[in-house]
């Protein structure tokens, strides 16, 4: 992306109906880098902010902490003519432009209100815990009949060696007297990027213009882990460790006027992205060499680091980041040609576009749990009694006890088959449109666009597809299997568009339009298929039971899996046969955990977006303009993840739809998503001399079942009977948004009404004050449950027991945001009654403002602007959504209410006020 000082034009078109535009149901953004001119022009700039310019830290941060945020953004942009005697004569021929922008940022980051085990719990002493800790080696196989540890204390000799080693690495609590939200983490992150652009324009004659450009952006990011030697998540939600790389773009274009009414233009482009993050190689093969857990790390430095440990209710331990490490070496090629013909009242334009993508990745990935270093989950069921008290009630006692005992509820690992994992895919597009000036008052724009995305392939073999009708994995181009595995992609991607503008009179214009855009989702989502990646996942047949490796190759065959048993080594098949088929005659886990976590349908008929709007614009006077619009979008059968191997509540893995051939989740990217957006949008703008004040308001509603864009969201529930609970408010839905903005030029100095000359004009002239005030409705959130539904791939939610949920508005640990007593945990194996995004969280308010002064020199040929900007000027705390993890608990003896963070807000969605100063020298 070019620096702001390099951008000449940025055009944003929301729900546009221009037939040559291919964006679907949203905004299309075109960025044009400046070109040189006949005279030398340029700008030097620097912007700076640091913690001396920042107000107090996050509302929930530990008292006394000041956030460090030092950021410098600096650079230049310069352009002019190129004079080459005897080759280029005169002006308007050859121009050059270049710019540079550097950004350096160091932040003293925080991750507050984490929960870690207390000092007593770290030794196995749960005598002060509010729940009973049961011995998983007692009782029946289904989890009933277990006996509690005497005194609620786990004997030292029962604590697993790996668990003891990791526990010793944990930092001391910052609030040692609390079970929950008892640790605040602080650390330093850094970010640096340099952006360079070069551009040349050449006009050989009056009919032709040729241009070329090159951009490069090297970057470097460092994000340490929040628990130090014990790992944890990365500060600021980034990739842990060291990340960096560079992006490069090269492009060239030509515009040629064949006749005054016939124009041809086109361009070609190439993008190269080489970025990566190395995770935590400084720890080496920590899982196998230090923790002595077999199968965790792998071959070579790419798999080094601490395995991940997810303990319910406790901050993540080790490295649980499923995207780390990674290395991307991606190439993109594009070519566009357009022809424009003007004939009478018609402006006809036709064009063609081709894009080719080459992904070359190393990133063992494919699930939300498995990492390249191995991952272990502890949900508390093995240290609890089936049919007994609620798990982890009041504190994460049972899950931590289970971790100490070393018996996981889930194990998994991601291993890549080859490096790089290389995908190739493309898209073709063509369009024709006519802008018809019917009369002085009426303009009609109509056209048709066609889109086609062929089935993807790899670099050395074709597509890979799991066929649920035969339970076969097909490898394209191998063993007689067609390159595309016999799958077809629709070629009927026709998208008509129609728009009209009617000038009622000199002051009123009515515009409207309707258009269809084919879902533009490409096939990058097939990257982590088996055998490209082996994504193993081992879970028990039912809740409260042990994982078993009995009959699993490359394991010790344990019937009660512990950390000492590790994770079975992955096995990759010989793909030359072209067809792979798991066999249910062997142990079900022999092959099944390695099957692809994603596939696509044999007939890929992608969906589309319908968009429409009606707008009335009115000039009330020469200085006052208003506009009101109705805008709608409907996504029909858009691509999304659909788990085709879910099971009904209380049926476990045996109830999965593809059992016994597959006992893990399998997401099919298919045209299944549905979304709607309807909004009333209004703007009002008033010009007062050289100043402007305006406002924009939107009242809207967005509903979907995709919970993300371009398949990034997965169906919240896998069981078809619960699909209706998925189609709820979109996660981005804000019912009302209001923005008020202003740009006020003080009426002093040259060109203004007051003090137009003299020393006073120079001192107090040239000042400008601007700002924007934003007020938005809150975002929706889901009320979850801690109850087990005992269903493969199936999520659940709380049950609503009171039809009216009171919003209390609290924002402290003892003051809930909503009445949590309106919800209850459903019984084990029962689906909750509430859908996703049921409640609305706190609203958003922020005011940003700036003040600037421009000094002119050399008869205004040189100008220096000094600017000060304030973000969140009022230092208003905007609270994040509350925790939706049900439910409130009442002490049977005292009657005291334990919120357990349910319905309680523990974070913010805004940053404290900070200031930025900048200087711009333009010539």
Explain this structure.
With 923 residues, the protein is mainly beta. It has a domain of 207 residues. The protein has six helices and 43 strands. The strands form eight sheets. It has a 22-stranded antiparallel β-barrel. The protein has a five-stranded mixed sheet with strand order 11-10-14-15-24. The longest helix has 9 residues. The radius of gyration is 31 Å and the shape is globular. The two termini are 24 Å apart.
Q: Concise description?
A:
Strand 12 and strand 13 form a beta hairpin. The protein is mainly beta and 923 residues long. It has a domain of 207 residues.
Features:
mainly beta; 6 helices; single chain; five-stranded mixed sheet; 43 strands; 923 residues; 22-stranded antiparallel beta barrel
Annotate the secondary structure layout.
Layout: E1 7-14, E2 27-33, E3 41-49, E4 69-81, E5 94-114, H1 119-122, H2 161-169, E6 183-205, E7 208-223, E8 241-259, E9 262-277, H3 286-289, E10 308-311, E11 317-318, E12 326-343, E13 346-362, E14 375-378, H4 397-405, E15 410-416, E16 421-437, E17 442-452, E18 457-458, E19 464-467, E20 472-475, E21 488-489, E22 493-505, E23 508-518, E24 533-538, E25 579-580, E26 598-599, E27 603-604, E28 608-619, E29 624-643, E30 667-688, E31 691-704, H5 723-726, E32 728-729, E33 736-745, H6 758-764, E34 767-776, E35 780-781, E36 799-800, E37 823-824, E38 839-840, E39 844-857, E40 862-871, E41 889-890, E42 897-898, E43 914-922
């Amino acid at each position: 992306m070019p620096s702001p000082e390099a951008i000449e034009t940025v055009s944003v078109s929301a729900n546009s109906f221009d037939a040559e535009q291919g964006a679907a149901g949203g905004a299309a953004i075109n960025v044009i880098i400046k070109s040189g001119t006949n005279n030398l022009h340029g700008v030097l700039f620097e912007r700076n902010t640091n913690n001396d310019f920042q107000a107090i830290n996050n509302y929930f941060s530990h008292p006394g902490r000041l956030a460090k945020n030092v950021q410098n953004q600096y650079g230049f942009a310069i352009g002019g003519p190129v004079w080459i005697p005897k080759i280029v004569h005169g002006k308007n021929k050859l121009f050059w432009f270049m710019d540079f922008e550097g950004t350096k940022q160091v932040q003293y980051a925080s991750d507050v209100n984490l929960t870690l085990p207390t000092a007593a719990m770290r030794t196995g002493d749960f005598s002060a815990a509010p729940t009973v800790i049961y011995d998983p080696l007692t009782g029946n196989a289904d989890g009933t009949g277990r006996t509690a540890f005497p005194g609620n204390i786990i004997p030292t000799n029962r604590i697993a060696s790996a668990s003891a080693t990791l526990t010793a690495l944990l930092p001391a609590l910052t609030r040692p007297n609390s079970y929950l939200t008892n640790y605040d983490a602080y650390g330093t992150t850094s970010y640096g990027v340099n952006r360079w652009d070069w551009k040349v324009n050449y006009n050989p004659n009056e009919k032709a213009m040729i241009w070329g450009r090159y951009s490069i952006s090297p970057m470097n990011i460092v994000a340490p882990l929040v628990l130090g030697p014990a790992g944890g998540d990365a500060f600021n939600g980034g990739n842990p460790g060291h990340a960096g790389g560079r992006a490069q773009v090269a492009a060239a274009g030509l515009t040629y006027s064949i006749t005054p009414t016939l124009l041809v233009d086109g361009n070609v482009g190439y993008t190269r992205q080489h970025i990566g993050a190395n995770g935590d190689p400084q720890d080496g093969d920590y899982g196998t060499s230090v923790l002595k857990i077999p199968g965790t790390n792998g071959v070579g430095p790419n798999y080094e680091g601490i395995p991940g440990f997810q303990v319910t209710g406790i901050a993540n331990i080790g490295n649980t980041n499923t995207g780390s490490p990674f290395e991307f070496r991606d190439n993109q090629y594009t070519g566009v040609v357009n022809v424009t013909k003007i004939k009478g009242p018609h402006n006809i334009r036709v064009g063609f576009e081709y894009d080719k993508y080459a992904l070359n990745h190393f990133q063992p990935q494919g699930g939300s749990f498995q990492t390249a270093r191995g991952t272990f989950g502890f949900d508390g069921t093995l240290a609890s009694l089936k049919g007994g008290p609620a798990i982890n009630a009041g504190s994460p006692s049972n899950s931590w006890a289970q971790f100490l005992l070393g018996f996981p509820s889930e194990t998994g690992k991601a291993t890549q088959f080859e490096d790089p994992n290389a995908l190739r895919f493309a898209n073709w597009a063509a369009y024709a449109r006519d802008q018809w000036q019917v009369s002085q008052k009426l303009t009609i724009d109509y056209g048709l666009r066609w889109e086609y995305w062929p089935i993807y392939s790899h670099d050395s073999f074709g597509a890979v597809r799991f066929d649920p009708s035969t339970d076969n994995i097909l490898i394209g181009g191998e063993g007689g299997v067609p390159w595309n595995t016999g799958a077809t992609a629709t070629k009927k991607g026709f998208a008509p568009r129609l728009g009209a503008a009617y000038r009622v009179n000199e002051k009123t214009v009515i515009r409207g339009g309707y258009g269809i855009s084919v879902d533009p989702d490409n096939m990058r989502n097939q990257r982590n298929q088996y055998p490209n990646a082996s994504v193993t996942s081992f879970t028990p047949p039912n809740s409260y039971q042990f994982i078993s490796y009995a009959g699993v190759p490359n394991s010790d065959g344990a019937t009660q899996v512990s950390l000492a048993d590790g994770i079975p080594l992955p096995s990759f098949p010989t793909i030359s046969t072209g067809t792979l088929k798991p066999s249910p005659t062997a142990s079900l886990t022999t092959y099944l955990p390695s099957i692809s976590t994603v596939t696509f349908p044999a007939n890929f008929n992608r969906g589309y977006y319908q968009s429409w709007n009606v707008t009335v614009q009115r000039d009330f006077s020469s200085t006052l303009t208003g506009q009101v619009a109705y805008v709608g979008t409907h996504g029909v059968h858009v691509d999304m993840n659909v788990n085709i191997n879910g099971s009904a509540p209380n049926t476990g893995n045996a109830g999965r739809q593809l059992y016994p051939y597959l006992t893990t989740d399998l997401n099919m990217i298919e045209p299944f998503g549905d979304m709607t957006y309807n909004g009333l949008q209004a703007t009002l703008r008033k010009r007062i001399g050289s100043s402007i004040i305006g406002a924009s308001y939107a009242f809207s509603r967005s509903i979907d079942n995709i919970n993300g864009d371009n398949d990034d969201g997965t169906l919240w529930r896998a069981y078809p009977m619960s699909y209706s609970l998925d189609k709820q408010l979109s996660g981005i839905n804000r019912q009302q948004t209001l923005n008020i903005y202003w740009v006020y030029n003080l009426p002093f100095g040259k060109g203004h009404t007051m003090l137009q000359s003299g020393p006073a004009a120079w001192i107090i002239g040239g000042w400008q004050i601007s700002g924007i005030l934003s007020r938005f409705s809150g975002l929706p959130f889901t009320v979850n449950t801690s109850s087990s539904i005992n269903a493969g791939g199936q999520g659940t939610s709380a049950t609503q027991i009171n039809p009216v949920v009171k919003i209390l508005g609290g924002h402290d640990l003892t003051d809930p945001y909503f009445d949590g007593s309106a919800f209850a945990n459903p019984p084990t194996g029962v689906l909750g009654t509430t859908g996703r995004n049921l409640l609305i969280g706190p609203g958003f308010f922020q005011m940003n403002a700036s003040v600037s002064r421009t000094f002119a020199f050399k008869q205004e040929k040189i100008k220096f602007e000094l600017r000060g900007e304030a973000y969140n000027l009022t230092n208003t705390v905007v609270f994040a959504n509350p925790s939706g993890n049900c439910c409130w608990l009442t002490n049977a003896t005292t009657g005291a209410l334990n919120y357990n963070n349910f319905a309680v807000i523990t974070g913010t969605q805004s940053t404290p006020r900070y200031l930025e100063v900048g200087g711009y020298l333009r010539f």
